[in-house]
Design brief:
Chain lengths: 748, 363
Amino acid sequence: MTAAGVTNRKRLLVLLLIFTLIFFGLIIRVGYIQLVWGVDLQKKAVDQWTRDLDVYPRRGSIKDRNGKILAQSATSESIAARPSQIADPAKAASMIAPILDLDEQELKKKLSNTSSSYIWIKRQVDRKTANEIRALNIKGIDFTEEPKRYYPNGSLASHVLGFTMKYAEPGEGLKGQEGLELYYDKYLKGFAGKLIMETDVAGREMPYNVDRYIPPVNGLNIVLTIDQVIQYFTEREVNNVVAKYNPKKVYAIVMEPNTGEVLAMANWPNYDPNQPPRDIGDFDEMQQLVKNFTCKDNIDPGSTFKVITAAAALEEKAAGLTSSFNCPGYKMVDGQKISCWRAGGHGHESFAEAVQNSCNPVFMELALRLGKDKFYTYLNEFGFGQATGIDVVGEEKGIIMSKETAKNVDLARMGFGQAISVTPLQLITAASAVINGGNLMKPYLVKELREPVIDENGQETERLVKTISPQRVRQVISSETSAIMREVLESVVTDGSGKNAFIPGYRVGGKTGTAQKYGPEGRIIPNKNISSFLGFAPADNPRVIVLLMVDEPQTPVTFGSVIAAPYVKQILEDTLKYLNVEPVFDQETREKMQEVDVPDVIGMELAEAAKVLKKAGLDYLAEETGTVVVDQMPKPGASVITNTTVLLYTDKDPDGEYSETPGQESDEPPVAGMIIVPDVVGKSIREANNILISQGLRLKIEGSGIAVSQEPAAGTWVEENTEITVKFKLPGEGVQNNEDNENQSEAE
Amino acid sequence: MTKKPIDYPILLTIIILVAFGTIMVFSASFYYAQLRWGDRYYFFKRQCIWAVVGFIAMAVTANISYWKLQKFSKLLLVITIILLIAVLFIGVERNNAKRWLNVAGLSIQPSEIAKFSLILFLAHSMSLRRDKIRYFFKGVVPYLLLTGVLFGLIMLQPNFSTAGSLVILVLVMLFVAGARIWHLGFLGICGAGAAGALVMAARYRLERWMAFLDPWKDPIETGYQMIQSLYSLGAGGLFGMGLGESRQKYLYIPYPETDFIFAIIGEELGFIGGVILILLFVILIWRGLKIAITAPDLFGCLLASGIIGMIAIQTIINVAVVTASMPPTGLPLPFVSFGGSSLAISMASIGVLLNISRYAKTS
């Protein structure tokens, strides 16, 4: 037996040293991983062990200013399964299928598919059904709450409320897609909670089952400035307009003029946010339908804009109540002839009369007197060309010609509401400033944010989080000017074109408007107008202002006074009564309030009908194309106030063909007995003569052949017996495009 | 020669390691066992049986004078080689490798037997040829050739880690036996060169091997094991998540009861638990090398060195792999990892070590 040598022993000690060093190196390495790197590794490890199930927060409600629910979330339950945990899929399927009305075999197949860790059995079931399934107590069946949005009033205020998208972003529940649902999404949506479960690598829940629950934070409720009742009044009238005139679009806004609170905002066509029109194939098309047009369409305001010009002119003393004007029926601006809507002109008139008559040349004059700088200053001060700042996503700003390129002709046209585009909201906001003492207010839709909380009795209540106060943007005109404007605008309703908006017992102010529509090349599109009425009351202390704009009413008579004013009147009357504004009956109103029965003029010749109505103390307005009255509004026997305008519908022209009328020249109801010039272009001398005589007009012949032009233009209002000059040319002579024709197209 | 008491610190360390290992095997394996075999005690029961077998084997070998083993060294080597060849034909294939032989319902790894029979043979042979060991061709090369044969056979299974650990073992034993340092250095360089060439020959192998440097480069494939092992250790922190509280064992980490049991220990018992375990191995190695130094003869010295060297090599490689300190390779943690034949044979060799300790010279 030979003992180990010294070398062997030495080497063993070296070996011990090497092993020990390596082991201490490993201890350091383990320490580094567990203690230094570990913080980060642990986070990643936890991520990999846990599966999160989102617990949806309840989206906040949208309420009207009185707390009435306009949009509300409810949760419905969804039933899911974890196939790997279901012991007996066949038995489970046979128990569940009958309750949920599902196919048992199919369900069994789904439950047996252990390769998927989580499957939906049925989504959006009511709580009672869910509880029935819950009572079965089957292991592996899961319940999740899912949110659903309800709009209890259907289409009411649909464009204002908007709608939501489902599960667009997991964990956020519903997401606002349009309207206030979109604008206030961050407040409404709340924060998702989580149910954190630990699972194995295949997603199977852990046996020790230490689920953690982080409760969701529910969204805030928002309280609108909108009053559900006023919104209803407004939409009812919008629907009446639609039923009668079948327009392309209708815009209506009701506002508190002193604060900028929007009391109602309606668009037509509308939709039901409970079923957003997602099935419209084209996304752009859907956007067109669901966007809030009152804030997003740039349209030509027409005569309602004269309110702004008048206010600016008064403020700048470019004119006063005592100023007098003369209207020859047109105005020459830089060598261009721009017509008044009334062919013969209004002659001598005061400032107030000019507004009552909606006389174009006067407003051209006022704009020119103000001059470009001042006029543009007022456009800017009244907020045109800028967003109002209302709580609507993607509000439009209107379109104003750049100041540099605007010529006098443009300035003159802007003066009476042409050559400028505004949103209906801009117009009513600026008009509010004109009548409320001169303050431009920021319009708004939401006045409060409230947090839903549970009180000590377990009842759900609300805690006020934020109040949005009225916000004055700037003072635009003096309160004196504003007071004058209120009076002038009241006279439009008492004595001028706005008679149809008169409400007995209330002082109503207003302004009518009919704007022409322009085609892509800037040419007027015949028979396509926007009829509007801007009304407010009480005129001495306005509480409500209403703007109604009707785009392309399908009727030959498109005057704002006829198409829009009666409906605005109805909205105003109902709203004032609803707001408990008491009517005041003084001597003057009583006189005006004398009621008369509408005589039956159906079947009469137009001229005769006019006489009958005049005798009964009523105004009338007729289609220009026919001679015999076939229908009337209001109906015979209806009880109306004196001076109400009766609308007469006549039969077609004698040739039996519908004669195209070029662009409506005016919207102003004429003094009783005025006649609309029919279109005779294209007719023979004999035909033209017949048509004109049947309307009570005289023909002055120039040339021979077929009519190529006429003066005054078709659609203008003229006195009875006015001589109409018609140029005739033999076919082949070529039609001269005459400058007058161009200018005749100017609307009021 | 007077018999002394056995080295109790080693015995105690082994009892602690095996008991602890058995508990950890249960903790690490019950979830998989339940899922795979429908019996959460599947691995635990087997490990208990093997532990009992191991203790019996240890008791037996501790009471057989180790000199007597010399007689069997050649026979055992021949049997080992036969078994290594047999396993290639009748072995049970698991995870694309034929490493197991089913004997009487228990699966046995011939490569585990190879470790012990190689140690025994080398110790015997080197102690007889102690003067030739200083020569390269006469001394070193024959052992290398023998090891080469075993290496080749085990690589055919394939089982690179066990085969590789045999090569290191031979170098360690040559070192202790007194081979010239520069011979060993030269071999080390050759070995490294050969390994390098082998790895470089196939780019995928290089990438796979180097994945441990940045496992997140390919977290799904090559880096997966490393990442999961690091997650385990990282989740454990200083004190661990508590016994039985590992999350990684829920199928996230592969082989939690064998190759990656140290990661689960680190996760459940933290850095403190891991350090205590490593220190137990340090004690074992320290006591084991002490036995080698005080062995009455060169055979005993080399035999003890080989036995403790093998345990040290496996422990170091296992912990290094788990801590992403070297390319991943599957070696069990001695006495702790699940694995019947490994446990029983390791314990039997400890019995031999304990027997040697009874003849220690007092110095």
